[in-house]
Amino acid sequence: MTPALRALREHYPQGQLHLLVPAEMAPLFQQLSWLDRVWSMPRRRGSANLRETWPLIRALRRERFDRCVDFASNDRGAILSWLSGARRRLGWAESGGFFGRKLLYTERVAPSPELTHESIRLAQLLSGWQIPAPTSFESEIRPDPARAEEARKILPETGAIICHVASSQPKKEWATGAWADFYRLATAAGYTVVFTTARGEREASLMNELRQLVPAARILPEIPDLALFLAVLSRGAIFISGDTGPLHFAAGLGLPTISLFGPSSPLRWAPFGARHQALSGGPCHCDGHFPICLSSRHCLAGIPVQRVVAAMPK
User: Fold this and answer.
1) Which domain holds residue 78?
2) Looking at the structure, do residues 176 and 258 belong to the same domain, yes or no?
3) 22 and which of 11, 43, 147, 203 could share a cystine (Cβ 3.0–4.6 Å)?
4) 158/102 same-domain check
5) Exposure of 152 by Cβ count < 10 A (0-12 exposed, 13-18 middle, 19+ buried)?
6) How many Cβ atoms from other residues are within 10 Å of residue 165's Cβ?
């Protein structure tokens, strides 16, 4: 979303640019100097808590916004756009949702039927206000400098390759055995390799499995919050993972990335820019609604370890 936000800033250089995001995502944007304010929205998936959100809505209305852009344009976003009090409200012209959702916007843009990169797609929404594309479609994140010393203690090494093992959908994960083979080849070639993963029981079990396969592997401790995680990532030299959130965090922080794609499309989701490489496995036959692989051969198994090692910058 940051390229689309930059397009707004470039078009309205003297305007106040505010961003409303779920509270857990706020650290991704709080250090961007060209955003005037980041609002943290308390959120629980599938439910609304008016007691928590009403004070925030009242504060938003006091800002007397001229315009509001809803990049998600789901039911919740449409309602919040209308409640913001902005005179002009822009969203996607998509079907579905509750009856009358489209009436909560003053302008709507029909999504393009063509497959395009997500950063380009989000910026296209601004065509509803004749706002041109941003000067760059690369994402942008800045780490919190106040967390730099904590991050250094977690990852004191410089030039490390950070490998993120897990994903919210197991079918997007490279096999643990492949990560173990990668570790052996990369360290033999002189690289420093460290592993990280998300928080959770399944992710912890993946790390335990990796420890059994390569006891010498350097595995980072559990990192308690997103702001510190970003500060740790910023110390890396290269980031490797499947299609998962931390891949885009690393790209936004400026790290070269190697992404491993199977069930999802690299044309839409791979990090944008010349310093990023996306490797694809074999054809995926999984149903998109299932988080696990249902095929007899996992598509990511079509990415050999040697190919990942060969893709690393020299």
Assistant:
1) 2-129
2) yes
3) 43
4) no
5) middle
6) 22
Tally of domains within the chain: 2
Q: Would you give the DSSP letter of residue 47?
A: B
pTM of the model: 0.92
Q: How far is CA 266 from CA 36, 206, 262, 295, 307, in A?
A: 32, 25, 8, 20, 17
CA atoms of 261 and 241, how far apart (whole Å): 9
CB atoms within 10 A of CB 73: 25
Instruction: Indicate which CATH number applies to the domain containing 162.
Output: 3.40.50.2000
Domain final position from 102, 129, 156: 129
